[in-house]
Each structure stands twice: as structure tokens, then as C-alpha cells.
Amino acid sequence: MPLMTVRAVEAYRPKAEPYKITLDRGLQLRVAPDGKRTLLVRYTVKGSNTERQYRLPQEHGDAPGQLKLSAACAEAGRIRTLARQGVDWTMAEDTRLEAEASTRAAALQRRDGPTLEVELRDYVERKRRAKDGLALKARTKSDYLAAIEPPRVTKGGTKRAAGPLHPIAHKPLANLTASDIRATYEAAARRSLRRAEYAMQILWAVLRWNGVVIPGNPLGRETAGRDRITITVAKGDPVPIPPELLGGLVARRREGTLAGCG
């Protein structure tokens, strides 16, 4: 049973300075000048000569969310019993809370997933070209990563605008919406249609690389033509000039240049 009754505890009123009263063995009540009543448990873990103190999370009282005297005594008794067995409950509780926080953070990360920036960097490092299985060229990697760069000022003092994909670079890839993509494209197109289309090519490649499906994606073929962002196909013959003809072409161009200089 408690050494003090509820009535006796309630008789203690706030003073100009905080003070403590003993409620039960190892249990104290700290009364602050503002009237706040904090419950403190004092205990010594088996094998240690140091007395420790733990503040119970609830304030003392009968109101909802507060801890009654009987419950406080029971909790103090439980903590002190564990201490006599060599268990520091407060440290174990801190470890448990940290583990729960890590679990919640990991779950949140799984739900939101990596950002576009993270996935784009992963793409340029791991992607292999279909024609020869080689890594992307350094120039291609640089061009792709430039699409997510923030605005900056060069050493020479020249201001560089942010990359066209920078507005959504820090958004989780799985959370991108059709509206995000269209707004990004339209903003980039106001500066340069060519850069906007190139940015959409990059974005579409990363989405497909990760298997991300976005409802109503304006880049997807399943989207109606009137709602789709059309990316202009590069003009010209993509077939390379055969080596046996390349030498003659270079020679003719050189001759023409020299003739023009005469």
C-alpha cells in the first residue's frame, strides 16, 4: 500500500520553488511552481552502485491522460523489481522506442520509395545500351543528370537555370502524377521545346526502367492522343555510313573546302 493517501498528496500545493515528496518506496512526486506534478521513480540496477531516476511520462492526477496514485505505485514497483533482477527497464524502453521509430521510417520509405533524382542516378549508372551491352556514354550521363540540376552560378559568374526535371527531382518516383508530368513539361517548354521533349524522354526512360505505372501518364501510349505529350522523333537517317564510303566522303568534303578557299 502507498505510504501516503490520495488526500494527503492533494494537500500539497505549489510553492515559489519546486519540491519533492515521497509517495512510496522509490516513488517521488515533484511539484512545480506552475502546479505540474511529475512522478519520479528511483531505482538501482543489480550489479550497479548508481541510483538512477526515471520520469514517468504521465503527469499525476485523476484527469484523462494522467496517472493515479495507485497506478504510479504499481509502475514504480514493476520498474524496481526488474532492476533487482538486473534489468534496466528505462534503457530497454529507449531501445524499443528507437527500434519502432526505425521500423516506421523504413515503412515510410517503402511506401514512398526513392525520389526521381535517386532513381535517375541509379539509371545512368546501371543502364546498358541495347545494341552493344555497354554502359551509357559519359556525355549521355552528363546530359541526363543535368536535367535535375538546381539553379547555380558558375565560377565566371554566369547564372545557370535549373534543369527541366528539377521541380520534381525530390519527389518520390512512385508518387508522381500525370499532373506533375504535364506541369513539368509545360514549364520547360516555355523555355525550350527541345529541352522539354528531351526531359520527357529521360523521365519516360526512368519510369519504364523502374516499372512505375502512372494513371493517365501523358507520356504513355495508352493515353488518348489529345492528352498525350508528343515527343518529336529525331530527323535524319539513323543508319551509319559504311566504313568503305566514309573515307571517300571525307575526302570529297576536304576537296570542296580547299576548292572554296582558292
Beta-strand residue fraction: 5-15%
Distance between the termini: 115 Å
| Shape designation | elongated
The assigned structural class equals alpha+beta
Describe what you observe in this structure.
The protein is α+β, with helices and mostly antiparallel strands. The chain has two domains: 104 residues, Double Stranded RNA Binding Domain, CATH 3.30.160.390; 139 residues, no CATH class. It contains eight helices and six strands, in the order αββββααααββααα. The strands form two sheets. Strands 1-2-3-4 form a four-stranded antiparallel β-sheet, with helices on one face. Strands 5-6 form a two-stranded antiparallel ribbon. A hairpin with a 6-residue loop joins strand 3 and strand 4. Helix 6 runs antiparallel to helix 7. The longest helix is centred in the middle third of the chain and has 24 residues. The protein is elongated and about 85 Å long. The N and C termini lie far apart (115 Å).
Concise overview:
The protein is an alpha+beta fold. Helix content is 44%, strand content 12%.
Keywords:
262 residues, alpha+beta, 4-stranded antiparallel β-sheet, two-stranded antiparallel sheet, 8 helices, 12% strand, elongated, disordered C terminus
